[in-house]
Amino acid sequence: MAVEQTNTSAISWDLTAAALTGSLDWDVTQFKETGVVSIYDVAAGGSDSRLFIGAVEPTGGQTTTLPNTRLLVGSASYMEFDLSNSGTEGTTYSITTSGSITSPDATTGTAWVDGAKIRVGFDTSTTGAKGAGTLTIDNLASTYNGSNPNSGSRDQNDKITVSNVSVVENREITAQGTADLGKMFVGHDSSEGIVGLSGGSQDDAHGTRVGLSLGSTSVTNGEVTANNSSLFGVIFSAANQVHDIRLVGNFTTSGTKTGTMNVAGLLYNAEAASVGATVDSDVSVNYSADVYQRASLFVEVPHAGPVESGESIGVRNENTSDGGKRAAAKIISSVLSGEGWGLTGLPVGSILNQNSSVTGTFGFDNALLLNGTVRTGTLTLGLEHADQTILGAGEGDLAP
Q1: Given this model, what pLDDT does residue 37 score?
Q2: Is 353 within a domain?
Q3: Label partner for 247 (CA 20 to 30 A): which of 117, 193, 293, 311?
């Protein structure tokens, strides 16, 4: 208890409301500067209690500042602090909270005991930025000990503060669209199929931080490999973030390929362990591809040996060996050597689809058959894959 008198031109003392017992301690320090005289009820052997947080006694009131804190929504964990007393006497104290800080120990008149703890928590019922908070500890002793002017009723309040608390929920990562791997031959790498990974609509105050590993990290399902399209790692921490990953396929059989692969292995938890966040274990990405066997050509002839005038030959593209797709071939050139020979059919530009053939018939100008002369000729066809957009195809890539 304290009674204060303000310095005026005529100093008078009004102690009618003060029930003073024991000895009086007159504190006139700084009277000339402040104009205040304080009278404290010390009572013989007044309280020497001095409360503080932790193990090291401060010189005055103590403020413990917590770092900006991130918590998972619905979590009920508390930070626990020792409440120490450097005095020889017990005391009672009050705990009050404001702002984002809560405490199950918030009450008035708690008796200090050796080993006392204070629990500091936060409202985690909803997500978002909860702002600053303060927990205040007030020593409720009514007297102080003259040998320690900072004890008992003069013990300054101790505080635990935080400037911001964010309550977050686990961020869900989802794929946008389908990765188109294009057209390629069996055993040939596909083009890069790009698909975006979205971190959702949560900003940093509402969603956890999820990392996407740098480009050297990859995952595969045996035929398709996925990695970050950037050489640098990224963090999903803002609203509506999208980061691209790339998929490359290499297939052992032909056909139209559609599938799904799990790319969760590219993600990692970018939160502190204390948050207790988890990362999706299944992030499905769809892909599609058209895979072809290379054209496989052979010549169909009526018999062994040279073909005679009036006989036909065919060029055939075989069927697939795996039930999928075989690329078509195209005749890009035709050269028939030998005087007197002609060819009907097998025109330049002819397309040889899977399991089909194109035929031509040879003819000879009989007027050139003089005195039993044998006239020979040679047909040379140039071919290439008809669809040059198939990865692995090239101009004139089918040998004559």
Answers
A1: 40
A2: yes
A3: 293
Q: How far apart are CA 386 and CA 396, in angstroms?
A: 10
**pLDDT band, very low/low/confident/very high, at 16 (cuts 50, 70, 90):** very low
Among 292, 317, 352, the domain-final residue is 292
Q: Are 329 and 299 within 8 A, CB to CB? A: no
Q: How many domains does the chain have?
A: 4
Encode pLDDT of 158-202 as tens digits.
999 999 999 999 999 999 999 999 999 999 999 999 999 999 999
Residue type, position 52, single letter: F
- Distances in Å between the Cα of 353 and the Cα atoms of 146, 249, 255, 360 are 107, 25, 15, 16
| Tokens found for residue 79 | 């930070």
Question: In the prediction, which pLDDT does 400 show?
Answer: 67
Burial of 8 (0-12, 13-18, 19+ CB in 10 A): exposed
Tokens standing for residue 49: 């209690």
Phi first, then psi, for residue 266 (nearest 5°) are -85, -10
CA 386 to chain centre: 43
Domain of residue 18, residue span: 2-41
- pTM, two decimals, is 0.76
- Identify the helix (H) or strand (E) that includes residue 32: helix 31-34
Nearest to 47 by CA among 1, 5, 84: 1
Do 124 and 206 meet the contact criterion of CB atoms below 8 Å apart?
Answer: no
Q: Which two tokens stand for residue 292?
A: 């072809």
Question: Half-sphere exposure of residue 186, counting CA atoms within 13 Å on the CB side?
Answer: 16
Nearest 5°: CA angle at 312, between 310 and 314? 165
304-343 pLDDT per residue, tens: 999 999 999 999 999 999 999 999 999 999 999 999 999 9
